[in-house]
Amino acid sequence: MQIRDYIIRRLMVLPLLVVGVSIIVFALTRIGGSPIGIYLSHEMSQEEVAELEERFHLDDPVPVQYFYWASGVLRGDLGWSGVAAAPVTDVFLPKLAATMELAVSSAIVAVVLGIALGTFAGARRNRLPDHLTRVFSISGAAMPLFWFAILLLIVFWVYLGWFPIGRSDPDLWARIDHPTNLYTVDSLIAGDFGAFRDAVWHLTLPAVTLGYGATAIIARMMRSSLVEELQEDYVDAARAKGLPERLVLRRHARRNALIPTVTVIGLSFGFLLQGSVVAEIIFQWPGLGRWMADSVLRGDQATIMAYVLFTSVLFLVVNLAVDVAYAYLDRRVVLGE
Amino acid sequence: MTLVGSDGPAPPALAPAPVASVVDLRVHFRSKAGIVHAVDGVSFDIADGETLGLVGETGCGKSVTARSFLRLVPMPPGIQAGGSILFRPHRTCETCSGNGCAVCHESGRVPDACATCEGAGCETCAGSGYLTVDLLEIPEQDLRTIRGNRIAMIFQDPGKALNPALSIRDQLAEVFYQHRSAELLAAAAIDGEAGGPAGTLIRRKAALRSRLLEDALLSLPPLRARRNKLRAAADDRIVAALAETQIPNPRKVMDRYPHELSGGMRQRVMIAQALACDPDLLIADEPTTALDVTVQARILELVRELQSRHRTSVLYISHDLSLVRRVCDRVAVMYAGRIAEVAPAEQIFSDPSHPYTRGLLAAIPATSHERGRLVAISGTVPELINPTPACRFAGRCPFEAPVCRALEPEPKPTRDGHQVACFIHHPPRDAADGVPTFDRQVR
Ligand SMILES: Nc1ncnc2c1ncn2[C@@H]1O[C@H](COP(=O)(O)OP(=O)(O)OP(=O)(O)O)[C@@H](O)[C@H]1O
Ligand code: SF4
Ligand SMILES: [Mg+2]
Ligand SMILES: [Zn+2]
Ligand SMILES: [Zn+2]
């Protein structure tokens, strides 16, 4: 099967999977109890509460409630967020942009740096660069994220004052339009270099926090699979052809070493989303993660469901991308099985 | 260093030179138990145009010897403990264009002349007048112009020696881009000297130097036509190389990946790749061991045929004497890191001199079952860790005498073209104090 046909087929199955996921999300959230709590206040009478329950169909059986919720989602109505005091849909997109800006920039850095570092170390097995990379990777994978974040915060914000927290300087933020809500992109569109610098500057600490662990895991995987590939006969065959060592590495060994690494890259994207909750809280980054944490604490079920639904869909897409990359790199994979 | 097309014809007066000479090669390995003397003083010549068989049991050092030609033994754990491998690059004879004439002794190839004396004979070339390089000494960069170009190698298992992630086309194209870059540019009618960024880009592409971004630029309209012409030129050569190994439908096979081909097909691809640049020496390390018996015969036939057509010298490695008999002109028998006997192929079979060779011949019917194990000779190959001077075959040899444990026999000529390392044939003449002379005792 052609890779293109494979992608189309996988995309056609995607909606079914999303429906399945949404049922699970809904059911799991309902186990936590009725969502009514966040909408109540102490002054309300018993009748008023009953009226609210009726209005939100909370007196219906759970499957019917699911139907109301799902049709709302299809119309773009994700419910009312008690925490944000606004419709979830209105708040979701700007916050999503903030989280994505953070997660994607960390992911790009982690993938590029992780692969480069892993290749560098694997090609110099058991020499100094390899040992240094090992120290870097092990501490990256072992260090608790919150602790590393606080460490960076104390050193670079509190003590040295080199980097700010939050997302931007309010004056610079007000100076430009925000068509995408990705501040780095917005500032480039506006052609405002000062604002761009400010956006990157604010992004640095949380992105480093988030990206470190992923970089470490990717580098580790890349290193070990490269070491393995370098033992293979085809590497010697490539040398026997007269190729210089850099091409033996780049065209032959690294290509095959990327195959297991791609799986790890897919998994570490989940790691990034999880980590974004911690990084956003510590660095006061106004993204989904922080909003989510507040919502969990206050039982804001509409927000929780929206968030979980969104991350599930994201995972399905990342998973698809990984499978496609895998098929592209490893020609022995039988597509569609 | 000029290896390919060095100017000045070689003087016709000179005798044909061996294309390669292994001189006292020693390759050791560091291991926990001590130093493993895997190859310990191996010497032999490969004459121009001949097929030399290298046979011996598993672990006797055949592959290490073969890999040493291209410096593919991993170091560490390997140690280059001494010796040299002298190689004399050849080129097609200008007088007969490769058809064979008096100048090239009917071989169709003439050796390149020594760069220092231009053929007169000097110290650098040991008086031979031929360009001679020590493969173990030359800089990495010079070695790379020889690898895959003047000396090519085929491996035991073609399933492992081809990169699973690259198409057959991509893998063969590399050889041409690496060694025939200028020729490809010329065939594609691209001005190899063209200035400007476009010229640089396409030149870098043809020399495998282009990076991701440059490849992207080359796939855009203004440059794409030129890139496609270059590709077409490479494709033509790939198809020709594949067709020569009797692969049906080479244009289709080219786009396949290794796992989509059968074992025999893959080995044909490896052979096509090895012969792509018409090398002077082809090293075949057990090229049929991993294949089905029926396929083995056809691959063997193919190697034989291509060898005679290209007049390439071949070092053919095998643990199977009956195979070697069918392809080789001469045979070198190896035992435990040393050469036991070298002789013309018919002599090895009709009149084996070394006790080990006799054992090997007696074992022929059995070897087809158990790979490389000798049933007819009792005992096992000695540990090669820190060996003492003694015949390596002592302990398994039915003719062993006390001297065999005290001295190491060197390969010496017994008659024309036949060398044997055994005290039966060269009794030590003036034995030192306490060293017994050869005293034959049959066990
Ligand atoms: N990479 C290595 N590391 C350590 N020791 C090695 C290595 N390669 C070879 N050796 C040693 O060299 C010896 C000879 O190995 P070699 O591969 O040349 O044998 P061979 O004659 O080709 O056998 P086979 O028929 O099994 O291919 C082995 O017994 C082993 O002890
Ligand atoms: S030297 Fe001695 S032990 Fe070695 S092969 Fe000859 S007779 Fe046998
Ligand atoms: Mg071998
Ligand atoms: Zn001639
Ligand atoms: Zn000279």
Description of the structure:
The complex is a heterodimer of chains A (about 325) and B (about 450). Chain A has helices at about 5-30, 45-55, 60-75, 90-120, 130-140, 145-160, 170-175, 185-190, 195-230, 235-240, 245-280, 290-300, 300-330, and strands at about 80, 85. Chain A is mostly helical. Chain A has a domain at about 95-300: MetI-like fold (Orthogonal Bundle). The longest helix of chain A has about 40 residues, at about 245-280. The radius of gyration of chain A is 24 Å and the shape is globular. Chain A starts with a helix and ends in an 8-residue tail after the last helix. By secondary structure, chain B is of the alpha/beta class. Chain B has a domain at about 165-255. Chain B is built from 15 helices and 14 strands. In chain B, the strands form 3 sheets. An 8-stranded mixed beta sheet of chain B has the order 8-9-10-3-11-12-14-13, sandwiched between helices. In chain B, helix 4 packs across helix 8 (about 220-245). The longest helix of chain B has 24 residues, at about 220-245. The N and C termini of chain B lie far apart (about 55 Å). Chains A and B meet through helix 10 and helix 11 of A and helix 2 and helix 4 of B. The complex binds adenosine-5'-triphosphate, iron/sulfur cluster, magnesium ion and zinc ion (2 copies). Magnesium ion binds near residues 63 and 286 of chain B.
The N- to C-terminal Cα distance of chain B equals: 56 Å
What small molecules accompany the polymer chains? adenosine-5'-triphosphate, iron/sulfur cluster, magnesium ion, zinc ion
Tell how many strands the DSSP assignment of chain B holds: 14
The multimeric state of the shown protein is heterodimer
Number of helices of chain B: 15
Give the number of DSSP strands of chain A.
Answer: 2
| Structural class estimated from helices and strands of chain B | alpha/beta
The portion of residues assigned to helices of chain B is 25-40%
Shape of chain B: globular
Biggest sheet of chain A, in brief?
2 strands, antiparallel
Percent of residues in β-strands of chain B: 15-25%
Q: Which fold does the CATH topology of the domain at 94-299 in chain A refer to?
A: MetI-like fold
Strand order within the widest beta sheet of chain A: 1-2
